Structures are given as structure tokens and as C-alpha cells.
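Q: Fold this one first, please.
A: Sequence and structure below.
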Amino acid sequence: MQMGKLLGFLLLSSTLFIGLVAADWNILNQKRKNGVRSSLKNYCESWRINVELNNIRGFEVVPQECVEYIQKYMTSSQYKADSQRAVEEVTLYLTSCCSLNGDGKDAWIFDVDDTLLSTVPYFKKHGFGGKKLNATSLEAWMRESKAPALEHTLKLFHEIKDRGLKIFLISSRKETLRSFTVDNLIKVGYHGWTSLMLRYVHPLQCL
């Protein structure tokens, strides 16, 4: 069974909001310690990239110095452009490396949050990670089934399905959120997947 190795490209920001920087980690302190003269913007950009690469782990909040930067990025055209480019790379990988036999043994795995469904609307109202994640509040929002689809990923989802691959969905959501998750996915245009596997992990253990 072949899997998309570049799936990580789609996880552009899912880790940004599920457990963010240890209380004693301060960007300005790091700047002084390392003797590096650079702008705060550069530091925040570096922090964001290293979160995506999973180099920075075990944190609870976005550094306060970087909250505004994260907000601007997540609501910018650059975020959408990055998402589109990631999907283009995945599509290229799919068309160039995989020989599909149509025997039902080929499959693709998608994560749900911030790959298929966006949590940006929730974090717009909750400080863009500048406050410790309130799991109860986030789950209440998930029960509303109002998360929008990531446009470019939605197109990729249907392209992969049309190629005859089985699609498996995974999520760290609780089993009690299954029906709300399914309703949300269908509502925004996702359908025809093979299985949805929910494997709840406490948000602070996801990194």
C-alpha cells in the first residue's frame, strides 16, 4: 500500500495551535543569549518554521512577542499561497512516483485538523495561540461542525479519490466528536473516504 510521503507539506500549521512555547522560553532572551542581531520578525519567522519542522517541542503558548506575527501570517495571502504550493508538490509527487494498478490496494492518508478542516476561525477568537489552549472550548467549537475546508486540500482530496485510491482519515479528536466531525467534513464537500480513525491524544502530547 503506497502512502503520500509528502503529506507533511499539508500540515502547514496544525502544530502551531496544539500546544505552543514553554513559559520560560522567551524570544528576546534567546536573542540576548545568542548575541544575534536580528529583527523580531526574523525571530518569529524562524520560530514558526521550526515549529512546523517539529524542532521546537513541549510548549504551551506562542511567545507573546510573536502572537501578532502569527496572526498576520495565518490570515494572509501568503498562508494561502503556501497551502497551494504544498498541494502542488503533493500532486507532482503523486503523478510522478506512483504506479497505480487500480487493484484497490493503493491508499492515501489525510489528517483532519488544519489539513482538511481549518481551525483558524477558532483561533481568531482565542488569541492565535497566545493563550494556553482550552481543550474544552476547542471541543465545543468542533461540535458546531463549522470548520471550513482548506480549499486547495479539498481539490486534492477529490483528485486522489478520482484516481481510485482509498482515502483514510486520521485525527487526534475524541471518539465523542466523531458524528460532529463527519457532519462537518460532509458539509464542506468531503465524502467517499474509506475510514475515519480517531486516536485522541492530549493536545500537549501532540508535539
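Q: Good. Now the second chain.
A: Here it is, same layout.
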Amino acid sequence: MKSYKNLIMAVAVMIICGWTINASAKLKCVPKLYAFGFAASFNDSTVYFTDIQEIDSAWINDKNDFLVSRDNYSYQLKNYFTSLGLEHRTCVISFALKRKDIEKKYQKMKNKYVKAGNYDIKSVSTNDFHFTAIKPDNYEIEAAQ
């Protein structure tokens, strides 16, 4: 009876280890993805939307299709606003692998602020700001595996 329990435990551990090994994610470079940025401040009612942009050679996690270095893309937008003297903006990037999907996200988010009615919505053109693709560093590569 005791050896039967040990056998069951050993099989369970092997199955769990197998799932863990197979569940490891890898980073992959996609030829292009689509993204837009959003910036807002708690100090005023102005919100900013960038144009939908195409980012070449962006890296994603193939397990969950998350954009690698999302925080660094947000910092690119934050640094742009800081250079204009508009500090303390909370910046977000939204992305999708298909243009149709990002257009739906963009419209949905913009409609929320239009319907609220008390926001000054401004656009940031691609001529003024453009996201630059970020290659993952060693820490991000190790964390993904």
C-alpha cells in the first residue's frame, strides 16, 4: 500500500514537471504589430491618443502574445510628453497583431472618453511621435523561459 502511494506521488510529480517544462514560453520577433499610445494626467482633463502605428520587428511572448518591454514603450511616450513640458502623465500602450483588432481597441477606448464628455481629447500624430521597436534584454529573455 505504501509503495502504491509512492508510485502515485512519483507519477504526479513527473506530470507536473512535464507541464512546467512544456509551459515555458519563448520570445519571438514578429515582422510587425500595430499599436497606439494613450496618456492622461490626474491633474487635468486632457487625454492624448497617438495615431495607430505599425511597429516593425517587435518582440512578443509566444505563450500569451504579450508585448515584451511594454513598460519601455510606455516610457517612450512618457519621455515625449516630458520633453514638451507635460510631466506626470500616465502612459499606456495598447497593441494587436492585426490592424483590425487594434482599430477596435482604439475606437472602444476613445468612445469612452467622448461619451464621458468632460475630457479634452487630443491626437498625437505619427509625425510628432513614433514608437521604436525594443529588443528584449537578457533579463527578459531569461524571465520568459
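Q: Anything worth noting on the second one?
A: The chain is about 40% helix and 30% strand.
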